[in-house]
Amino acid sequence: MKVSDFFGRRVLDKKANEIGKVVDLVIKPKKGIITTIIISTSDFGLTRKNLEIKISDLQEVGDYLLLNIAKEELEARKESTPKTEKVRLDIEE
User: Fold this and answer.
1) Does residue 18 contact residue 66 with C-beta atoms inside 8 Å?
2) Backbone phi and psi for residue 34, each to the nearest 5 degrees, phi listed first
3) With a cut of 70, which residues of the chain have pLDDT below it?
4) Residue 47: C-alpha distances to residues 7, 40, 42 (Å)
5) Residue 90 class from Cβ within 10 Å (0-12 exposed, 13-18 middle, 19+ buried)?
6) Kind of pairing, strands 18-28 and 58-61?
7) pLDDT of residue 12
8) N or C end of the chain, less CB within 10 A?
9) pLDDT for 50
């Protein structure tokens, strides 16, 4: 599966409730490993929230990404985690 196949894919929680869709991925380029999946909860700018999903939260990948946690747990996790400053990494060849 290519990384581009993830973008726009719908995400369901463990109760099969739709959470949103994949908008971004965080990867470790040297190892080629996806570490985090960013999910947008809405298409509209005013109500849009981004949630971060760890790979360990994924249960199954198919037509949808199925998680092994509930939406409430994701939102609670987002509120409890401190905001981190974004840092640009330069990768040497």
Assistant:
1) no
2) -80, 125
3) 43-48, 78-93
4) 20, 10, 6
5) exposed
6) unpaired
7) 92
8) C
9) 81
